[in-house]
Amino acid sequence: MREEELAEAHRERDRQRAAAEHKAQVVEEQAAELRQKDQALAVKEGELQGKETELQREKVAVTTLTVALTERDVVLKAREAAVQHAEAALKEKEASLSALWE
Q1: In the predicted model, what is the mean pLDDT of residues 49-66?
Q2: Measured between alpha carbons, how far is 41 from 25 in angstroms, rounded to an integer?
Q3: In the predicted model, what is the mean pLDDT of residues 52-76?
Q4: In angstroms, rounded to a whole number, what is the distance separating the alpha carbons of residues 77 and 83?
Q5: CA-based radius of gyration for the chain
């Protein structure tokens, strides 16, 4: 009877050990999976940072172009005003010359 109880205790211990080993293996697999996911997230974060840097460069480029176009627009308007002024002056001279010839 004592040997049977001892054998049963050994079997129970072996079952518990196997269950504990299985749980440890599952936990290790989960930890490995989490490490892989963490690495993948780190890669994605690096990619996103690169894209953010590129977007910042593009934003600077767009701002620079906008400023340049605005400045060009101001220059063109000033030239247009100068041309209109010159045309008006020429018309006045033409009228003045016309009056002199008459």
Answers
A1: 98
A2: 24
A3: 98
A4: 10
A5: 43
Mean pLDDT value of segment 36-45 = 98
Distances (CA, A) of 8 to 5, 11, 16, 17, 46: 5, 5, 12, 14, 57
Could you give the CA distance from residue 52 to residue 58 in angstroms, rounded to a whole number?
10
For 46-87, the DSSP string reads: HHHHHHHHHHHHHHHHHHHHHHHHHHHHHHHHHHHHHHHHHH
Give residue 9's pLDDT band: very low, low, confident or very high (50, 70, 90).
Answer: very high
Taking all residues of the chain, what is their mean pLDDT, rounded to a whole number?
A: 95
Out of 9-13, 39-43, 91-95, 97-101, which region has the weakest mean confidence (pLDDT)? 97-101
In one-letter notation, the amino acid at residue 49 is Q
Buried b (16+ CB within 10 A) or exposed e, 51-88: eeeeeeeeeeeeeeeeeeeeeeeeeeeeeeeeeeeeee
Distances (CA, A) of 4 to 18, 29, 36, 78: 21, 37, 48, 109
